[in-house]
């Protein structure tokens, strides 16, 4: 192998965007407005006139999710954005695949048979299998210059804290292994929400809307949420959520 220490600047690739949010926050609408998108669907709900795999309904097997990725790599389709809607449902299909192929459908161990839950084996194998999807999406980005958008339902993760008590933070509704893999892989992670505060009402804390009813997307992480914008793909701390505002902020950065 020959080594070359000359200073070069490689081409800037389209971003790998992960959008986390509850239902009705506009995640799918964002995906439909991306440049010439194709959706890999693992849940129902995308009624827009865009390219979809499958054209009607959703994928029901992990093998079909991976086959969709391989198809987009192989074919000269000309699409510019790949949207996975939603990633946590794809993870569930991955888990089912590992359960059936590695543990013969056995969730708990029994006499003479290993189970998915035994010593965390199933989740570790599922994590390794799930990485194949991220690798497949990287090939689409690197070889076909496609923007990658992963849509994720929000959930809570327990965060270990060496300096005090553990706490909960908002992230993707996924296993910690796969969610951590997605966080390391992504160039941008945005958390979409409507700001609210907890107030006392009749002795109990309840949520109350804070300010307007606008949807806000945060790209600055912290104790309460997982979010980020990697160097080269910088974003403001937050934007009013829409595709147009996202592109304006990305181009400004």
Task: Lay out the secondary structure.
Elements (H helix, E strand, L loop, with lengths): L15 E6 L5 H7 L3 E5 L9 E3 L8 H13 L6 E5 L1 H16 L18 H24 L2 E13 L7 E6 L3 H10 L2 E6 L2 E6 L2 E6 L6 E3 L9 E2 L8 E3 L2 H10 L1
Helix pairs in contact: 2-4, 3-4, 4-5
CATH architecture of the domain at 16-187: 3-Layer(aba) Sandwich
Q: Could you tell me how far the N terminus lies from the C terminus, measured between alpha carbons in angstroms?
A: 38 Å
Number of strands: 12
- Helix/strand/pairing class, anyone? alpha/beta
Number of helices: 6
Task: Report what the structure shows.
The model has no long low-confidence stretch (mean pLDDT 92). The chain has a domain at 16-187: Rossmann fold (3-Layer(aba) Sandwich), CATH 3.40.50. It has helices spanning 27-33, 62-74, 87-102, 121-144, 176-185, 243-252; strands at residues 16-21, 37-41, 51-53, 81-85, 147-159, 167-172, 188-193, 196-201, 204-209, 216-218, 228-229, 238-240. Strands 1, 2, 3, 4, 5, 6, 7, 10, 11 and 12 form a 10-stranded mixed beta sheet that branches. A two-stranded antiparallel ribbon has the order 8-9. Helix 3 (87-102) packs across helix 4 (121-144) and helix 4 packs parallel to helix 5. A hairpin with a 7-residue loop joins strand 5 (147-159) and strand 6 (167-172). The chain is globular and about 60 Å long. The protein is an alpha/beta fold.
